[in-house]
Amino acid sequence: MKNQAFYLFTLLLLVSVWSCKKDDGMSVITNNNDISDYEIIIQNEFISLPSKVSVFYRVIDGLGNPVSNLTEDNFSILERGRNDSEFKVISEDEADRIISDNNDIFRNNVILLLDLSGSVVNNDLDALKISAELFVNNLLSTQNSSTKIGIFWFDGVDVLHELIGFTDDIDLLTSSIERMDATLSTDRSTDLYGAILKGAERAQNVIADNIASGFQSAASVITFTDGTDQAARHLKSDAFNAVEAASATIDFYTIGLGAEIDNEVLEALGPKSALSTDNPDELADKFQEISDAIFAEANSFYLFEYCTPKRDGSGENGLRLEVSDANGDGAVNTTFNATGFESGVCTLF
Questions:
Q1: Which end of the chain has fewer beta carbons closer than 10 Å to its terminal beta carbon, N or C?
Q2: End-to-end CA distance of the chain
Q3: What pairing do the DSSP bridges indicate for beta strands 316-325 and 328-337?
Q4: Where does 104-298 sit in CATH, by number?
Q5: Which residues contact 107 (CB under 8 A, 6 or more apart)?
Q6: What is the DSSP letter of 101?
Q7: 194-219 in b/e burial notation, b at 16+ Cβ within 10 A?
């Protein structure tokens, strides 16, 4: 009797698990703590005549690390039409596909916020300048023209000062950093929370400008400080909320220097990565670690486009993208509408 009850319970459990299987619009994840369990996070989807389906997404592993430099060979397309009971693989013979070069369709914006309060200017300005120059060179020396850097500084004034606007010109960026000196700052206090609020707004605005110009877009905000907010112009909770409520396409990093750093604040303002050191000689290593992470993040975004064999009349169709390489695999389910699709030349760039 006990054995029969056990078998019945096991059968009901299996039925329950199968019935809860994730459906369209969801990443298909079995264990998000497993580094080999990849997640595809859709950022945008669109279609264009006569039959092109485009999906812009990023890929991360089960620990949240970016999975970069994948190719078309790492992805499979499956569709589920109205006559299909399950997803079916669409071969390359039926559907041309391409992953577009990020340089052509993507803009990655890096906002560097530098604390030029009195303690930095008097004690650590040279170390900061060297570290910022290494950051710029490390991030842009790979000729990744999808990335542009804007450098801003803050002190105790309720203003985020622009040192140089967004550019990928290394010479302009480094010469601007070289010009930083004690005469820039007029208020030796630290408006850290105000800088975060204004930096988050800058990130949102530059992404909106990129999208209006026809590009997919993301941003990273890197804040360097050697202490806590002293100006008290803005609420800590407002700065925390601005970071938490920001778009998923905006990553926040922080770098702290010195004994006055509040690590809990750094982590809240830099949820992607919060690094700190008491030694100015180690500052350059912290900046390089962040630049390496941003480079990997930028190359974990993909625009995957293919020419679907579905035609007008097929209506709403299921679409499944699967990713696989030597280190892991994953999938995501979504949909597209084939209304208006027809035969003709489907151009992929």
A1: N
A2: 65
A3: antiparallel
A4: 3.40.50.410
A5: 146, 148, 210, 215, 216, 217, 218
A6: P
A7: bbbbbbbebbbebbeebeeeeebbbb
pLDDT digits (tens, 9 = 90+) for 9-61: 343 333 333 333 334 445 555 455 788 999 999 988 999 999 999 999 999 99
> Rounded to an integer, what distance in angstroms lies between the CA atom of residue 114 and that of residue 195?
9
Domain residue ranges of the chain, discontinuous segments joined by +:
104-298
In angstroms, rounded to a whole number, what is the distance separating the alpha carbons of residues 346 and 44?
20
Distance CA 143, CA 146 (A): 9
Tens of pLDDT along 186-208? 899 999 999 999 999 999 999 99
Report whether 300 contacts 102 (CB < 8 A): no
pTM above 0.90, yes or no: no
Query: What is the percent of the chain with per-residue pLDDT over 70, rounded to a whole number?
Result: 89
Beginning with the edge strand found earlier in the chain, give each strand of the sheet holding 147-154 in spatial order: 161-167, 147-154, 106-115, 216-225, 250-257, 273-277
Which has the closest alpha carbon to 130: 182, 174, 161? 174
